[in-house]
Amino acid sequence: MNELVINTEYVTLGQVLKMTDTISSGGMAKWFLSEHEVYVNGEVEDRRGRKLRNGDMINIPGVGRFRIVDKNGEK
């Protein structure tokens, strides 16, 4: 599992898709989520604006599994 380190209170699912190179631009997030299943904390999520915070787990099948970690590395 990979860690995505953030230095803000949250990131959106669309930002995570871009950070993980799943999509090349933020505009592709809506399309990607309509065509592919993405799991947040074990549940299918299709909202690109979903706020992800420290400790959230994201599974993008075919890309990888990621955990959001704040800048201090706290879990």
Short description:
The chain is of the alpha+beta class and 75 residues long.
Q: What does this 3D model show about the protein?
A:
The chain has two helices and seven strands. The chain is an alpha+beta fold and about 80 residues long. The strands form two sheets. Strands 1-7-6-3-4 form a five-stranded mixed beta sheet, with no helix packed on it. Strands 2-5 form a two-stranded antiparallel sheet. It is globular. The protein starts with a strand and ends in a 5-residue tail after the last strand.
Q: Look at the helices and sheets and give the structural class.
A: alpha+beta
Strand order of the largest sheet: 1-7-6-3-4
Choose one word for the global shape: globular
Measure the end-to-end span: 14 Å
The overall strand count is: 7
Calculate Rg over CA atoms: 11 Å
User: What is the chains' assembly state?
Assistant: single chain
